[in-house]
Every structure is written in C-alpha cells, then in structure tokens.
Amino acid sequence: xxxxxxxxxxxxxxxxxxxxxxxxxxxxWIHVDVMDGVFVxxxxxxxxxxxxxxxxxxxxxxVHLMIVEPEKWIERFKEAGAxxxxxxxxxxxxxxxxxxxxxxxxxKAAVTLNPHTxxxxxxxxxxxxxxxxxxxVNPGYGGQKFIExxxxxxxxxxxxxxxxGLNFLIEIDGGVNLENAPELLKRGADALVAGSSVFGVxxxxxxxxxxxxx
Length: 214
Ligand code: DX5
Ligand code: ZN
What we know:
Blueprint: E1 2-5, H1 15-24, E2 30-35, H2 47-56, E3 61-66, H3 74-79, E4 84-88, H4 95-104, E5 108-113, E6 131-135, H5 150-164, E7 169-173, H6 181-187, E8 191-194, H7 196-199, H8 204-212
Parallel strand pairs: 1-8, 2-3, 3-4, 4-5, 5-6, 6-7, 7-8
The chain binds D-xylitol-5-phosphate and zinc ion.
C-alpha cells in the first residue's frame, strides 16, 4: 500500500521539521494540495511551498491541483519538482490533451474525480493515466467526514481496470483513517492520502507506521 500524507494538515509554523519527519517516516509520497479559491472554496498554497518541498523532500511529490485550467500550470509544476500531477476531470475541458502534456513533461499523470462524478466517465481516458484519484470528501478542506459511497466507486473502478486489462493505480483522498483504510484496500485502492488522521495525533511518524502495517 502506498501512503501519501497530506501536507495540508501539517503545522506550517514548523514546515522544515514536518518535511524532515516525512522524510524519516515510512510514507511513500507527500501529497501536496494546491487550491485556487475558484475551483474549490478555499485557497491553500502554491509555488513558495513547492520550492521548499523541492529543496527538502526526499519523497516523490504527489501534487493535487484543485485549480481551474490546470493545463496552464503543467510546466511550472514540473519545474517546481512535481513527480505526479493530479488534475480534476471537472476542471479540464480537454482532458486527453492535458494528460498528454503532463506525460510530455515526464511526470506521472493522474485524473481526479469529485464525489459526484461517476467513474464511468473515465472509460475512454483510463489508457492515458498512471493513476485515478477518487475524492472521498468534497475537495477544499482537510478534516472532513469520509463519504461512504466511495467504497462502491473504488470497486467499480477496479472492475473497469480489470476488464480493460490496465494497471493504473487507484488513490483515495479525504477522511481516510485507520478504520476505513482496510476496506478501501480490500475494494481495490492502492494508494491512500491521509491528512488529519496523520498530523492530528501527537506522534505522526508512528501513525504513518500504523497505516503502512495495514
Ligand atoms: C481535500 C484535500 C485532501 C485533504 C485530506 O480537499 O484534497 O488531500 O488534505 O485531508 P483529510 O485526510 O484530513 O481528509
Ligand atoms: Zn488532496
């Protein structure tokens, strides 16, 4: 299982220490939530934080763009050190072109679905992606409640993957904790994002270990 702790829930007053902890930890990737206040009702951070991560992180950066017109930013995020670029299906008018442009920049291309978007819309895109990120909360904030219907979506997406003979990864983001993680993995998820359930406890490094032992 791939664990991608979400930096959004970290303490930005001690960003250095948080990144160092993630470097030391069993985390596989670092999930980086970029919000523009237009696609989602919140603004998080952008290039200055990417720059710190690029300098200090020793884990692949799993960048989740919650922004309109993500295609305009592909090169900039490559330059800023992104390894995986997640763009929302709902934000990209020409998804195929966007995914190709991400690959042209030698990054992994991932498409993200909001909770209301059925996995079936990806039927003709799955060949072009390295990963599908299913949102299990409405994007915009950390610490929200997991939407239970996600289990069914993971299962349907895993069945599509099987039927099409593809091997993209399935990642889940929002409200993931030690209680729902086993069921998500059972239904076919490969990667889990965890924000508040990792950073909301006194020993985040230990919590990461607990996730990885599932
Ligand atoms: C929500 C973000 C998530 C968020 C997850 O819009 O995409 O990555 O940080 O945080 P938790 O795990 O607390 O739901
Ligand atoms: Zn995210």
